[in-house]
Backbone:
């Protein structure tokens, strides 16, 4: 049985990594991720966590070292935010390309310039094409549970995972979290199988130079070329949607709660209008939907938990038949629109009856977003005029 | 105060003074009191010792789904009376709400008016008496909870004691409990709404 503790999402992430018995941690501190690194360092120092803690001089090195540790068979953890994540950019591609089952806590923060330490999701959303799985959490319980699920998923599909949660809004906010027992986590997450191929007797090159065409390796086995490796990554990340859902179901059996797989819905049963969002912002949307329902408008919420792989068919299924759909997100693809709205809009080309779609960019750099603002913006969109705009830009 | 399903509290303090700890201890006590949804969100800008900081707390019978800032608090807690000159702590306080202040002055001498109740205790002095001093700083993070629980009925001092016992051990525990006790016993509570009603009548 678990124990309720009143903790921040950062503590939840650190505790989850410990419960997953990570063997190597390497991280470089950056606000608002810093407490994750501090708490894990303390656990290693005190002996509560039997792991190697590598202190490094940068985020690039942090990810490079966990990629290396992962390739020789260790279960690894790292965490970062904003500019730190962007400094990892090269190694993000490398981690996914070398199929290292890394789990990384990404504590969402706006990207400078201008400088900000406060929350938005531009940092992780801008890394969506690196080949990582991305999970977005709505509260601290989901952060703890998603880190545990992420190891199970990553090690099954051999693809690294970012567990994303909103900086300060979740990372520094204390709420009750059910912290599971070690025994429960051990039942859910078996020890990592050694897949490295290094056994000390026959040291061999595990990372051969890949040429563009398939060719035999030293043992005469025909190895894929660059494009074949990349094709497999795409096939496997698409297929991981089923693994993510299965892991969430198995989680329910052991822990008595789950997080609805790839997308979740709130009051969508009879909804005519939908609000769509990710992370804690989607949780705010549920209160906006409640207040709009009180005014007699049939509004529901679709929360996107898995952003990559993109759960296109679930989104189409949830939103088909809606009169209007309004997206709210804390990111923007500069020169076009919010990334989630763009992706979902493309998916909804397949809807049998296409709703009128609007999208809002909100809450950049920590600008507070309240349910009443979300309700008012949604109300305008339910009147039919589709729009793309920014909420609460002040003159 | 009338008993509600939800409470929103803003804590005003200075960096390093204990506003975050006070809010965390109180939300934990509220959880023990049966509120399933509690949250304490510090508002961060450039954190440094002495700068005004605030913490936004929600206490609800249902799990918390919003993490946005509290705009109209039911309760405002002021850990440093000098902040009254810098931050307008009562501008958005709900009518019928509660203002808790750490002050050496009496409620009358603070010259605060509005449709709310005011609870004053010299939390600083209580902490000092209890020996709650770390690196020369007198910490009011637990003593400020004395006037708060004295003027409210939804958490209770026993749950605050339990939360303090969960957080502290040994001598620091004894000092925190003592500071809480002293500030609780030495709280002055004035219903300003009632006072103005009497004045008008």
Residues:
């Amino acid at each position: 049985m678990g124990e309720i503790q009143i903790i921040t999402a950062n503590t939840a992430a650190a505790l989850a990594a410990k419960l997953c018995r990570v063997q190597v941690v390497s991280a470089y501190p950056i606000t608002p991720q810093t407490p994750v690194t501090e708490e894990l360092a303390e656990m290693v120092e005190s002996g509560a966590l039997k792991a190697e803690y590598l202190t490094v001089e940068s985020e690039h090195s942090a990810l490079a070292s966990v990629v290396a540790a992962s390739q020789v068979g260790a279960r690894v953890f790292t965490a970062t935010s904003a500019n730190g994540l962007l400094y990892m950019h090269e190694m993000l591609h490398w981690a996914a390309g070398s199929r290292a089952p890394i789990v990384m806590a990404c504590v969402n923060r706006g990207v400078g310039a201008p400088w900000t330490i406060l929350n938005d999701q531009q940092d992780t959303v801008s890394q969506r094409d690196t080949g990582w799985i991305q999970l977005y959490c709505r509260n601290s319980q989901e952060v703890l549970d998603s880190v545990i699920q992420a190891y199970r998923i990553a090690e099954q599909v051999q693809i690294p995972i970012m567990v994303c949660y909103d900086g300060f809004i979740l990372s520094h906010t204390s709420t009750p979290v059910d912290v599971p027992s070690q025994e429960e986590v051990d039942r859910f997450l078996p020890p990592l199988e050694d897949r490295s191929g290094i056994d000390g007797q026959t040291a061999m090159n595990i990372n051969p130079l890949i040429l563009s065409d398939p060719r035999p390796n030293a043992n005469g086995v025909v190895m894929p070329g660059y494009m074949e490796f990349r094709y497999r990554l795409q096939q496997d990340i698409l297929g991981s949607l089923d693994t993510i859902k299965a892991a969430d179901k198995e989680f329910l059996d052991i822990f008595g709660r789950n997080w609805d797989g790839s997308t979740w819905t709130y009051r969508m049963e009879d909804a005519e209008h939908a609000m769509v969002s990710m992370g804690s912002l989607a949780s705010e949307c549920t209160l906006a939907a409640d207040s709009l329902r009180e005014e007699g408008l049939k509004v529901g919420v679709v929360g996107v938990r898995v952003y990559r792989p993109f759960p296109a068919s679930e989104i189409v299924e949830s939103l088909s038949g809606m009169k209007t759909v309004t997206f709210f997100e804390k990111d923007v693809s500069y020169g076009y629109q919010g990334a989630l709205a763009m992706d979902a809009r493309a998916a909804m080309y397949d809807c049998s009856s296409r709703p009128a779609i609007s999208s809002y960019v909100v809450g950049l750099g920590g600008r507070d977003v309240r349910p009443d603002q979300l309700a008012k913006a949604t109300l305008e969109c339910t009147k039919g005029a589709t729009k793309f705009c920014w909420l609460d830009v002040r003159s | 105060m009338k008993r509600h399903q939800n409470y929103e509290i803003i804590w005003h303090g200075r960096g390093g003074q204990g506003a975050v700890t006070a809010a965390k201890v109180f939300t934990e006590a509220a959880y023990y009191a049966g509120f399933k949804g509690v949250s304490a969100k510090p508002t961060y800008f450039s954190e440094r010792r002495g700068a005004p900081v605030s913490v936004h707390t929600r206490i609800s019978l249902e799990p918390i789904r919003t993490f946005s800032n509290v705009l109209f608090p039911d309760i405002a807690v002021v850990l440093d009376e000098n902040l009254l000159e810098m931050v307008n702590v009562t501008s958005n306080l709900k009518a019928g709400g509660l203002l808790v202040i750490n002050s050496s002055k009496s409620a009358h001498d603070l010259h605060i008016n509005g449709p709310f109740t005011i609870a004053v205790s010299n939390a600083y002095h209580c902490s000092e008496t209890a020996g709650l001093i770390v690196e020369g700083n007198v910490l009011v993070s637990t003593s400020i909870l004395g006037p708060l629980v004295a003027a409210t009925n939804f958490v209770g001092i026993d749950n605050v004691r339990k939360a303090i016992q969960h957080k502290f051990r040994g001598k620091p525990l004894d000092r925190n409990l003592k500071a809480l006790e002293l500030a609780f016993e030495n709280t002055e509570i004035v219903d300003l709404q009632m006072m103005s009603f009497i004045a008008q009548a």
Chain A has 13 helices and 17 strands.
